[in-house]
Amino acid sequence: MRYALFLLVVVCGFVCGDEAERLHNLARRLNNLRRQCEAKRRRLLQRINSLQQEVNAKKALLSSIKEELAKVRESIKKEEKELRKMSARKDALIKDEQDYYERLEAARRRFNKAVASSIPFKRAKRTIAPQKSLPRLFDAVVEAHLNDIARACSVEAYRDILQIEKRRLRGYMVRIGLVGMAFAADSGEAALWTRSGWKASRDVRLWRAIRRLAEQSLKRAVPQIVPAPLPSEAFK
Question: pLDDT confidence of 46, banded at 50, 70, 90?
Answer without folding.
Answer: very high
